[in-house]
Amino acid sequence: MWELRSIAFSRAVFAEFLATLLFVFFGLGSALNWPRALPSVLQIAMAFGLGIGTLVQALGHVSGAHINPAVTVACLVGCHVSFLRAAFYVAAQLLGAVAGAALLHEITPPDIRGDLAVNALSNNTTAGQAVTVELFLTLQLVLCIFASTDERRGDNLGTPALSIGFSVALGHLLGIHYTGCSMNPARSLAPAVVTGKFDDHWVMVKPPAFPPPQKPSPCRAGTERGQSSANPSPPPPAPRSSRRARGSSLGLPSRVCCGTLHFHIRPRGS
């Protein structure tokens, strides 16, 4: 509960709200059917991918820029965030998504906004097929996030923001033809709430696909990024067995476990 008294925690929750609001606003806006400029699949995919990449680069150091309840739940299961932080993140993401969709709805002419790009089954896709597609789309996204932010990697081949943005764009290039491409329960919920269209909505709100666990480490409270250095956290107890010692040497710092999964974006050559 100490997180609730932290200014850094409040900033992180607000960053998730703002990031999801902007992501939904620009993403759904790119899919509106303007008469003289009908959107293409490539345009929509690039808009969602560029949106995620931009927001990860801008706010990743504040909250980790999950911008997706499925990603937050995956990080919770992977012991990268605490349960309290995950709950606040998901609430902020859902509220931010609805706010972004509502804002887009109000500033768009009625004959243009239509159903506000709500996710729905198309091209005779069955519910089972849609669930399978969405699971695979979310799997590759979560796998990309975990892999590109793994501090044990010795290579420096680019920025996580770029690879995560490409992952989102890749998912849309395939998923749009099946479900309109969700990959994000907040993105699906927002236009459904604003327009009142919940047909087949349960397909989009599926359990997140989890990548293979990266390391067998116990959960322990991490050090908050904004915590004062005058009162550092006590060091973790010494390992009781060689197995624990080997597990702790695999790499993930204690401040990440049950803390915030931050995207470490280092300049090339550092």
UniProtKB/TrEMBL annotation:
Keywords associated with the record: Cell membrane, Cytoplasmic vesicle, Glycoprotein, Golgi apparatus, Membrane, Phosphoprotein, Transmembrane, Transmembrane helix, Transport
Transmembrane feature ranges: 12-34, 40-59, 86-107, 127-147
Position of the signal peptide: none
Subcellular locations according to the entry: Apical cell membrane; Basolateral cell membrane; Cytoplasmic vesicle membrane; Golgi apparatus, trans-Golgi network membrane
UniProt subunit comment: Homotetramer.
Catalytic reactions on record: glycerol(in) = glycerol(out); H2O(in) = H2O(out)
Any Pfam family hit: MIP
Sequence similarity: Belongs to the MIP/aquaporin (TC 1.A.8) family.
Record-level Gene Ontology MF annotations: water channel activity
Region (Disordered): 205-254
Main subcellular localisation: membrane
Membrane topology: Multi-pass membrane protein
Species assigned in the record: Ursus americanus
Top-level taxon in the UniProt lineage: Eukaryota
InterPro entries per the UniProt record, alphabetical: Aquaporin-like (IPR023271), Aquaporin_transptr (IPR034294), MIP (IPR000425), MIP_CS (IPR022357)
Protein name: Aquaporin-2
GO CC terms, sorted: apical plasma membrane; basolateral plasma membrane; cytoplasmic vesicle membrane; Golgi apparatus
